[in-house]
Amino acid sequence: MNLKRSLLVTLLVGCTSNVGTPGPVDPEVKVPDKTPAVLGMTASTTPAIVSVGQKITLTVTVMNSGEATATQVVPTTPVLTGAGFAVLEQSPNPADIAGAAAADFTFVYLATDSGPVSFEVGVEAVDTLHDLELKAGPTTASVIIESAAMLMVESLQAPAAANVGEELTVKMLVTNGGHARATTVKPETLVLTGTGAATLVLGPEPVSADLAQGETATFTFRYRATAAGSLVLSGGARGTDANSSLEVVAESMSSATVQLETPAKLEVVATLPAQLQRGMTVVGTVRVTNTGTSLARRVAANPALPASVTVSGDAVLTFAQAALPVDVPGGATVAIPFTATLAGTGAVAMTVKVRGTDAASNADVESALARSNDATVTAPSGLAITSLSLPTSITRGQLFNVTMVVRNTTTGALTGVRPMPAATAFDVSGGAAATAQGTVAAQDVAAGATATFTMSYRESGTQGGTLVFNAGARGTAAGGATVNAAAVESNLGVVVMAPALVVESITVPARISRGQAFTAAVVVRNSGGAMATQVSPTLDVVGGPTGATAGAAQVPVDLAAGARATFSYALTENGTGAGSMRLTASAQAIDESSGEVVYAPQIASPAVTVQEPAELNITAFTVPAAINRGTTFAVSMTVANVGQATAMAVIANPTPPTATLTGGVQLTAPAAVTPLVIAGGANVTFTWVYTENGTAPGTVVFRAGVVGRDQNSNATLTVAARATNSASVSTPTGCNGSALYAGFGGRSLDADRLDRVVNTDRRRVKPYAMLPGEYQRVLNMTPAFINGQGATFNAQPARWFEEQQLSAISMYQAFTASFQGCLTLTSTGAQYAANPTAATAATECTNFQRRFWSRTPTAAETQACVTFATGTANNDAAARRRWAYACAAVLSSAGFLTH
Amino acid sequence: MTIKRNFSRRTVLQASAGVAGATLLNGGLSSDAHAQAADKPAVLIINLLGGYNALFSSADSFLGVNITINRVATPGGAPAVVYSGPAFGVQSARVKNLGNGLFVDLPTYGTNLPAVAQANMAAIGVSHGITAHDPARLALMSNGTRSYALMLANAMGGNAAIKCAVVGGRLPDGPRPAEGGVSMQQITNVASTIAALGGGPTDPQIPNRQTAAAALIAARSMSAPAIAENATSLSSVKNALDTAILAQQSAPQTFNAGAIATAYGLPATTTTVNSFAQQLFAAELMILSGTNVVIANSAAGWDTHSDSDGARVRNTMNQVILPSLRVFLQRMMTATGRNVTTLICGDFARSLPGSDHARSLSTTVIGKRVRVGTTGKVSASVQLPAGSPGVPQLWSYLAAASRAPTNPFGANPHNALLLP
Fold first, then answer.
1. Residue of B nearest to A895 (CA)
2. Residue A750 in contact with residue A735, Cβ under 8 Å?
């Protein structure tokens, strides 16, 4: 085949992909008996939509419609364009294709980045029979790469507290933050940790769900609490990526701590001193024990006063003052004293029941009616004990007083009156005991008068318990006779352990973003038996580069025995970098009984991961630069999260992006794009598919920003709006409406076409190959300085579509050659014998211009030549050389060097 | 399409073009290499058309990465392994640690670049997201309407007649409108260039420089109507006239071109600018003349598909680029009063496993103000971290390294890789 003819055919037919027409037959060459191989091709991808991580198969089908065999047929390495990306994993080897046959060639890619991807692929081969190089294509196949389904447990919701035996409802919210649909999404079996326990009754409901991009499903579980204590539920979820069929897993999330309680249950023990005397003021002790774990609030007698029960004789108790309601924590016992006056003799008892409110359920709780022991009441003799009492509640180790009041009921004064404790002064229970602190002085008591004796004791037992003091009294009458008061019992003193503080828990978020405000909850319990006042925790931060500022100081509270309080701290992370940290907490309080300070041991919180906040960037926002009218195209925005925290609900703002249209361009509305989740360091690509449906060419530019939120802090994330490149929408035809053709390398033949008004941009720099002949034409000689200067003029340009251009160097070379030629031209002729004048320059400049430019110059053009020819810069000593410079100036202008 | 095998377009198109003849240089030219102002900056851009493998600038990224290439022997057949081994042939014994996280390929850069270059080298990452050649070249050299090289050359200032030069026949892709009067001038013949700069031989047929300047001004006036009507198609005429006038108005410069050519292993009479050695010879001449930005495009086969073991690209680098680049760097980086920065780049890095087209680029920058380190460390899958800087930030770094009075490319995120 003739080479030049081949080029001509190529250019004229515009390199269609399957033209195999050979050139004219050389009669001296033997003509093969088969027509040449002619290749055609198609390309396709499967599947059409894939997820990141999934394989893409690009199949190139090559057809040989000729008769000769195409040998070494091999597709070119596909060129990928578009926002997505895939890595080539497998490519085909060359193969031969016989005439009228076809073969498939398979590339396998691994999708790595989401977005649309086009594979531009051609095919090359050889027709050895006809000594032809064969090519077809390129053609394009496309695939949409979606980010894989991305499951996330957004929350695991559970009630803060519940009672044993009750059901608690737990809800797991699972979101698909990826592009691809997630099918058969199921929660994992929840793991229960903590001191409490619960059993699954029902759930999850639904059993599974399919989640499209951005959708959320709520799975409900019902548990029954079976044991009191703290309980944390944890679990993730699993599903299947609908594109790749690969399993996708949502990271496990934990619920807040659920406090499981047994309901408050009140049990009452009423106690009266066993031995009493008529007329005494008596303290009856009502011990209320909450055998549940839930707090019983505002516990009080119901009715407000105990009732007196006369067992024998006419003894009767009269209660006059109701006790104030008290809170009884779970497991705690509170002693409530009721004071009564005693009349009559015989035996007496009291009955009482109490009522309160369960703090967890707000239900009323009431004890059974309790009946006290029977108290024997005797008539006093000459010396009567009217009162014997000790504190109803005594802290272990505490100093306390026993107070006895006696009355002289005789007609004469009694001397040396003093209490007479029993041989075993105290009846004790549990680990309680008491030791006397000094002695009591005797007093003289006038007839009818009373005396009060205060006896000091220190609780000296080892554990809690009860104390009852037994004592009579004795005095001496005026005649020396001894007057005794019968022994009686004091009221019941309940010995309780000192307050003991425990920091039960520090609740913190598992993850926070740097600079984030967050809350830490510290739970402090009084595990002792006595009231702790001014309970106040202390919170500190430990951790490497992290830190946090504490919020406002906590208001101290009083904690009864067994009670707990939650202190909430508002903190702000203020460290120097990402990492992890822990919070430590301790507490202190004052023992109400002793006034001593008590402390809680320090505990540490779970680790808090501190991440750099989610930070979104638009790393690419593109539209194809050239769009054919009436076609479908994609606009892609790639958003990267360069922070560490996960970015939630990321979406373009606005979505779809604002389109600015010019000319007659119109667009269909694209399908909705839903928000996505972008993990730290990851990126996703949003794609909107439009179809142009306007009436005329024009341009389109899209503009949008991005919004989202930080998963840790919930802070709003915004990225300022930016614009895509400008896409040119045009009709794919040439200047005259004919089809467009591609040149070498697939470059459109009109890629550099200038759309200008008539008579502009029509001139071009003359190719270097023309110049020697052009100098010869106008000067009748070829300057030596122009010969062999192809390199200086960059002849030919490196690429076929580049036009000849001038540089400063080639311009200077052209001027030098012109001067050399003009020296010859002006070396003879009388008109050049004298220096140029205005008149002669006007004539000769016009002559130069007409001769060199092949046209009549304008007056301005001639004047430019004249000005130089007669100017001071044109100052060569030789007149003919001055004319040569003027001549060279004309030759170095666009009139000669361009056409 | 069917075309004749072994067809050469050049053999046809050159049929009437003639072969460029060489104008002999006068061996007596004197060197004035150190007559420039103190720390005169210059930037050499070596653009490897086809791609720039990250094994050179981020060699450690591929340590321990083994790849397997499968091919289907026959259509529909089972795949067979055709290569299985370390990615790009990178192994620990073939990697050189230059410090501060920068690891280079030992058989090439680690062996064949001078110590002064290895002590002032950085990898600068460019995340452009493009995997097609033409768009990547366009993006690397322009913002779509303006040439980054001309923007840089203009920003660097100075009074050279030719502030931006392309050495060799291949112009960069993309638009090249003049920036502040600075246009891109192509250097394809050293002798003509020296002559234009005033370093040519004395000859009565060579025009006087002052008169030539005035004559060219007159030519520009006479060309003005044509240039105005053909503002696009004759833009090179306007730029050529403007720059040629400046060159003639400037003080003449002389060079010991023969000695420079000899340093590059070229004959002292070398004039053409075809081979890479000739390109760097011309580049040094232009830098000595005061040019701010010099571009040397190389089309020596950098589109290295299937080069999974990196053997082909290493061989090309060692045979084509490094012999003369070693000379250039040794001479320019030790030249008193000069701050020459060299950028080695390409369309994109090569991907794995098939050495195809990656979507980002890890360039190499060498210069007096370059601190050893990297922002161009790619992953084992030849990707830069999300949010890595793009093309303008690379040019911003070059402007900063050159201490350009203004930086038209915005903030320089690679600032940590600059020496004070």
1. B223
2. yes
The beta-carbon neighbor of A6 closest among B3, B22, B189 is B3
Specify if A49 maps to a domain.
Answer: yes
CB–CB contact B79 A768 (8 Å): no
pLDDT tens readout for residues B249-260: 988 888 889 999
Same domain, yes or no, for A178 and A137?
A: no
Contact A744 B208 (CB under 8 A): no
pTM above 0.80, yes or no: no
Size of interface A-B (CB pairs under 8 A): 339
d(CA B126, CA B245): 38
Q: CATH number of the domain at B160, please.
A: 3.40.720
- Residue A184 burial (CB count, 10 A): 14
User: Which tens digits make up the pLDDT trace of B32-61?
Assistant: 333 334 589 999 999 999 999 999 999 999
Name every chain B residue with its beta carbon within 8 A of the beta carbon of A876: 208, 211
Distance CA(A88)–CA(A55), nearest Å, equals 10
What value does the CA radius of gyration of chain A take, rounded to a whole number of Å? 52
Instruction: Say how many domains are in chain B.
Output: 1
A39-46: strand order across its sheet: A39-46, A55-64, A102-113, A85-92, B66-72, B79-86
- Residue A386: Cβ-neighbour burial (10 angstroms; 0-12, 13-18, 19+): buried
Q: Into how many domains does chain A fold?
A: 7
Distances in whole angstroms, Cα of residue A236 to Cα of each of A9, A848, B59: 66, 90, 40
Partner-chain residue, chosen from B234, B243, B247, that has the shortest CB–CB distance to A894 = B234
Asked if A763 lies within 8 A of B79 by C-beta distance, the reply is no
What is the β-pairing status of strands A364-366 and A354-358? antiparallel
**How would you classify the pairing of strands A579-591 and A450-459?**
unpaired
CATH code of the domain in which A422 resides: 2.60.40.10
Q: Which amino acid is at A386?
A: T
Interchain CB contact of B364 with A (< 8 Å): no
Quote the minimal CA–CA distance from B344 to chain A in Å: 21
Question: Where does A711-746 show beta strands of DSSP type E?
Answer: 716-723, 727-730
A745 located within any domain: no
Nearest residue on chain A to B15, alpha-carbon basis = A769
| pLDDT digits 0-9 by tens, A511-531 | 899 989 888 889 898 888 888
The ipTM, to two decimals, is: 0.80
Q: Which residue bears the tokens 């000899």?
A: B262
CA A389-A392-A397 angle, 5° bins: 100
* Residue A346 zone, left/alpha/beta (φ > 0; ψ -120 to 50; rest): left
> CA A814 to CA A560: how far, in whole Å?
106
Contact indicator for A677, A216 with CB cutoff of 8 Å: no
Distance from CA of B119 to the nearest CA of A (A): 31
C-beta of residue A766 within 8 angstroms of C-beta of residue A774:
yes
**pLDDT, mean of residues A63-67:** 91
Residue of B nearest to A133 (CA): B5
Instruction: Based on the fold, state whether residues A8 and A138 are members of the same structural domain.
Output: yes
Question: Which helix (H) or strand (E) is A387 found in, with range?
Answer: strand A383-389
Residues 629-658 (A) with a CB less than 8 A from some CB of B: 638, 640-642
Query: Which of A230, A261, A292 is the endpoint of a domain?
Result: A261
User: How far is CA B73 from each of CA A70, A87, B78, rounded to the nearest angstrom?
Assistant: 17, 20, 7
Beta carbons of A119 and A105 less than 8 angstroms apart: no
Nearest CB to A90; choose among B70, B225, B237: B70
Q: How confident is the model at residue B79 (pLDDT cuts 50, 70, 90)?
A: low
Domain assignment present for B11: no
Structural element, H or E, at residue A198: strand A197-205
Read off the DSSP letter of residue B384.
P
What is the b/e burial string over B48-63, where b = at least 16 CB atoms within 10 angstroms of the residue's CB? Answer: bbbbbbbbbbbbbbbe
